Amino acid sequence: MTTQHDPSGTVPHAGPVSACGTPYVQEPESYDGLLLAGFGGPEGQEDVIPFLRNVTAGRGIPDERLEEVAHHYRHFGGVSPINEHNRELKAALETELRRRGITLPVYWGNRNWAPYVEDAVREAHANGHTRLLGLATSAYSSYSSCRQYREDFARALLNTGLAGSVTIDKGRQYFDHPGFVEPFVETVGTALRELREQGFDSGETSVLFCTHSIPTDDAVRSGPRDRDFGPGGAYAAQHEAVASRIMEQIQLQDSPAGEGSTVPDWEVVYQSRSGPPSQPWLEPDVCDRIAELPGQGARAVVVVPLGFLSDHMEVLWDLDEEAMEAADEAGLHAVRTPTPGVHPRFVAGLVDLIQERIDAVPAAERPHMTDLGPWYDVCRPGCCENIRAGFKPAAAGLVP
């Protein structure tokens, strides 16, 4: 099969199959390494402020203000669990790849703390691996959760001088892949059944699907420009679609014949906003909604970290500390469900995605659990723009 070139642009730093820019690759690709890309986190008290300087680089935020956020990390000894979770995920991926006979070494690099993406790229090149498939530890579309990882890849290649010698493609967003969704169906369903056993019926329970808030300007620009996702852009639409699908699956499990509804009210809420009060961010805030639930007849709340792969700082602090405190103040019985972490179905699903890309599975045959998917192999022009920073060089997508 001959792959047709997408006339809207070219794809920098891409492998030969993805370079033509079609939304979905049409020919098998030969990779020799997998690049697991993470956010990064401090691993001791002395790392906290340097790490936060990296996260906020270019914004001119003084250390005094960074210290206001640092206390979240200091509460846990200055250690974010995110690096350890990525070590666990890397090991789980390696095990699953070996089990399937896929001989791809896994390299791990972060945006904001060691090991950096540049370190991973150098290591891969030193080992003779130059055709990398990137796998970001984020399931959704937005600037910070997708495009910025593509910028990380481009920056790493340029900073190391390996642009032209190493190529990096990026696996598709997997927000609605069964491997990501099914662990949530399992854990949310378990939480609701246990609440019923404790005497909380569906009419007295609310389910809050939580994700990181982002500036509204970024939200409306998430996803490709030629699709209308509504006022919250692809980011909000993806979360809403996945949450809806989770609750539908739970209802089918509880009522296979489709008789009656056994699921409580649910909604998507946001957390962890950090911008100035004058800047609009996605709402409602999780703690604000928790405070309102008793007035709507709720006695219990299930808090679901839908926007997160693992229990990192935004989960441990913003949900396990602040949201649970808000629930206690509201007199609600609260349960926080697990993140996918290294759930076997999630790990297997990630390897499914790797195999899918290697084999160039046609889009019509790719598993997805919402009408929004399957997402693109190659990001479309202008996807997930950050209007404050402009378009920086990015791999794995059509320019800009």
UniProtKB/TrEMBL annotation:
<keyword id="KW-0963">Cytoplasm</keyword>
<feature type="binding site">
    <location>
        <position position="314"/>
    </location>
    <ligand>
        <name>Fe(2+)</name>
    </ligand>
</feature>
<dbReference type="Pfam" id="PF00762">
    <property type="entry name" value="Ferrochelatase"/>
</dbReference>
<keyword id="KW-0408">Iron</keyword>
<feature type="binding site">
    <location>
        <position position="149"/>
    </location>
    <ligand>
        <name>Fe-coproporphyrin III</name>
    </ligand>
</feature>
<feature type="binding site">
    <location>
        <position position="80"/>
    </location>
    <ligand>
        <name>Fe-coproporphyrin III</name>
    </ligand>
</feature>
<comment type="similarity">
    <text>Belongs to the ferrochelatase family.</text>
</comment>
<dbReference type="InterPro" id="IPR033659">
    <property type="entry name" value="Ferrochelatase_N"/>
</dbReference>
<dbReference type="InterPro" id="IPR001015">
    <property type="entry name" value="Ferrochelatase"/>
</dbReference>
<comment type="function">
    <text>Involved in coproporphyrin-dependent heme b biosynthesis. Catalyzes the insertion of ferrous iron into coproporphyrin III to form Fe-coproporphyrin III.</text>
</comment>
<keyword id="KW-0627">Porphyrin biosynthesis</keyword>
<protein>
    <recommendedName>
        <fullName>Coproporphyrin III ferrochelatase</fullName>
        <ecNumber>4.99.1.9</ecNumber>
    </recommendedName>
</protein>
<feature type="region of interest" description="Disordered">
    <location>
        <begin position="1"/>
        <end position="21"/>
    </location>
</feature>
<keyword id="KW-0456">Lyase</keyword>
<keyword id="KW-0479">Metal-binding</keyword>
<comment type="pathway">
    <text>Porphyrin-containing compound metabolism; protoheme biosynthesis.</text>
</comment>
<feature type="binding site">
    <location>
        <position position="212"/>
    </location>
    <ligand>
        <name>Fe(2+)</name>
    </ligand>
</feature>
<dbReference type="InterPro" id="IPR033644">
    <property type="entry name" value="Ferrochelatase_C"/>
</dbReference>
<keyword id="KW-0350">Heme biosynthesis</keyword>
